[in-house]
Input
Amino acid sequence: MILDLFAGPGGWSHALTVLGARDIGLEWDEWACKTRAMAGQLTIRTDVARYPTWIFSGRILGLIASPPCQAWSMAGKRLGLVDQPLVHQAVADLAAGRDTREQLLAACADERSLLAAEPMRYLHALNTVGEPEWVAMEEVPDVLPLWKQYAAILRTWGFSVWVGILNAADYGVPQTRRRALLLASRVRIAEPPPPTHAQLAEPESLFGPGRARWVSMAEALGWGATDRPVPTVCAGGGPGGGPEPFPSGSRKTLTDARARGTWAARPDSEIVLASQREGSGWTARHGARDNRPADAPTPTFTAEAHRWSWSLRSNNQTNATIRRSNEPAGTLFFGHRANECTWVAEPTVEAAGSTPEPIKITAREAGVLQSFPADYPWQGNKGQMFSQIGNAVPPRLAAHLLAPHLNKPFNPADFTLAA
Output
């Protein structure tokens, strides 16, 4: 079997399902377990730090681990960095068969920090029977030094190991999510999969097959296609609410606007991938409406919509990253109100009426931007769903990483996002 530690709502598991394989996930969070159950994924609800390892001896083909990142993430207090020497000590001790976790945990500033050492407890136990055949681990970039320590140990056990930082956008995920990866194998050379996408499209040449341009939020969500919706601009008190931004008050679709020749997509030359920063006081000037259900489909474009450019603001803080809809999203993270993502509108030409109010992103939209299918069965209230999404591994990235270990081809058509 394939063992998935800290399995979350099923990022790795969904990738395995698409590739024709299955895992068994260990997960503690109640709502993540319910999401996994609705998605048909095998789960043991347990504390990874307390579950016995001997149960899996002689049964494991591959081991996956994405320890909780809250202690290390830029979105939190980052006490994991303070605790890093203790985590390194725990990994070294566990690799030698010494369990000093209780003593080290008492000295940690954040008790979650030591969870990053848990995969070594399983790896040491499995290594005594020559398992697993391969390993895949993922965390925020600041955990890279710890992955390098794991790599040094795994090499002494006969593994080929690669560690480094990968950008999910380079693999077709509509989000520039950078993560520290460890890939290891006993039977093949460990190396990252070749990227399929780039910030700017690269044509096929004698030196390679070329790469497509990064997938934008609009493309992933289906905005701009004749049968796809885009964010509401609130005409006539539509689904997005707020004042009437256009003098006509009409409800024309994007198709109508194209037919009249009044709408045109921004040319690629206008794509700006550098983060934009708002000045202080943004929250005081703008509020975010929260009248869409978490799983609601994105509302429909209205008349004169070409006058407005929609962007995604990553949180309510003054230094929040803002990305236009024709760019990939920035890293999505949730967990408290300061991390709420909102769609904000800016005029592209002189526009009559007031600017549409900011609209909070839905769980469906956030899940798609994490490369989950639009109908993924998220469970819980909005906060619980967003927490799962922000912590999940993008399934499309996971599939690229796992396909070589399973000797399975990666089929981009299996990861169509918009619905």
Observations:
- The chain has a mean pLDDT of 80.
